[in-house]
Amino acid sequence: MTVLKAGLQTSLQGAPYAGHRHLGMPTTGAADCLSLALANILVGKSFGEIALENTLTDAIFQMNEPCSIAVVGAAEYVRINDEDHPQHQSLRINAGDTLHIGPSRPGCRTYLSVSSGIEAEKLLDGQSTYLAAGLGGYHGRALKSGDVIAFSQVSLVREVERVTPENLRPHYSNDHVLRVTPGPEARKPTDGVLDDLCLSPYTVSARANRMGIALEGNPLSARKSADMQSAAVFPGTIQMPPSGQPYLLGPDAQTTGGYPRIGQVIRADRHLIGQLGPGSKVQFVQTTTERATEIHREKLSLLSSWLGQIDLW
Fold first, then answer.
1. Averaged confidence pLDDT in the chain
2. Which terminus of the chain is less hemmed in, N or C, by CB atoms within 10 Å?
């Protein structure tokens, strides 16, 4: 598969690097793991296998051998040889065909899965691209025009299309609700910082990437953002810098941080962070750790009817 137009940031992403944070290795992996899983199942792959993650702008590819593909995400359109095709179903594509994935409207990311195995650099039992360190994926970097993505096995072409059930198709929007539990520095009953965070929506600023997202809105009290010793942080951690404007960590987030951790996006909602683009609105809603566990189990139970046993990271 040859990259004719790479777009703003297209990289190879799949399952995260689990169990290596003590070495300073971020989780990384697909920013929207649910969209990745839905794309992969349509071409007969497991939920965490490597696919192409496209961000915000359009991208164009030429297929050099026949295979099945599936596109799931925020793309405005999917075109094969200038003919529109739907998302959420397996599509047959021939050698020489041109695939055009449209810009994200609304949302932020789109996933392209192919029935063939995609060759990617491997380390620490993973293959996802960690852009900041130049590791994994395609030479550790985002794709460029002219790159050729190699397939590691004979292509599989499905004769029967698979289609995602309507009730399992995510709704992509520029308005998001993220449920959060209290962070370690927001657990005092008299603090109230998490209550303040949930009072009104925040806007995703232009400072938004896979590492983290700067939010703009109601500033939180500066007295609650004093520097502290570095402590563990994770994707979905909400930090409070001295400015009082919250900072939401993404899949490539560092392993430790020195700003107060005022909240944590619940695991069931964390894939939505991958669809937060500049200008998006985010409303945080507080919940308990017990309810967060229930929500996660309920979501996995719903998804398992179509995706089988999967993981949300």
1. 93
2. C
d(CA 38, CA 18): 21
C-alpha distances out from residue 229 to 5, 77, 184, 261, Å: 44, 47, 13, 12
The confidence score (pLDDT) of residue 188 equals 65
* Collapsed DSSP state (helix, strand, coil) of residue 16: coil
Residue 186: its pLDDT value, please? 85
**What number of CA atoms fall less than 13 Å from residue 196's CA on the CB side?**
18
Which regions of 1-56 does DSSP assign to beta strands (E)? 2-5, 9-13, 51-55
Alpha helices in 20-102 (DSSP H): 33-42
Q: Residue 160's pLDDT band (boundaries 50, 70, 90)?
A: low
**Distance, CA of 138 to CA of 155 (rounded, Å):** 19
Which residues are paired to 68 by β-bridges? 92
The most distant pair of C-alpha atoms in the chain lies apart, rounded to whole Å, by: 64
Contact present, 19 and 163 (Cβ < 8 Å): no
Instruction: Work out the pLDDT band at 131, boundaries 50, 70, 90.
Output: very high
Tell me if 252 sits within 8 A of 184, measured CB to CB: no
Res 191: pLDDT:
72
Cα separations (Å) of 150 from 3, 118, 191?
A: 11, 6, 54
Which helix (H) or strand (E) segment is 237 a member of? strand 237-239
pLDDT at 156 over 80: no
Domains and CATH numbers, the chain: 2-168 (no CATH), 175-292 (2.40.100.10)
Q: Would you say residue 51 has pLDDT above 60?
A: yes
Contact 291, 262 (CB under 8 A): no
Cβ-in-10-Å burial (0-12, 13-18, 19+) of 189 comes to: exposed
Would you give the end-to-end CA distance of the chain in angstroms? 28
Rounded to whole angstroms, the Cα distance separating 306 from 313 reads 18
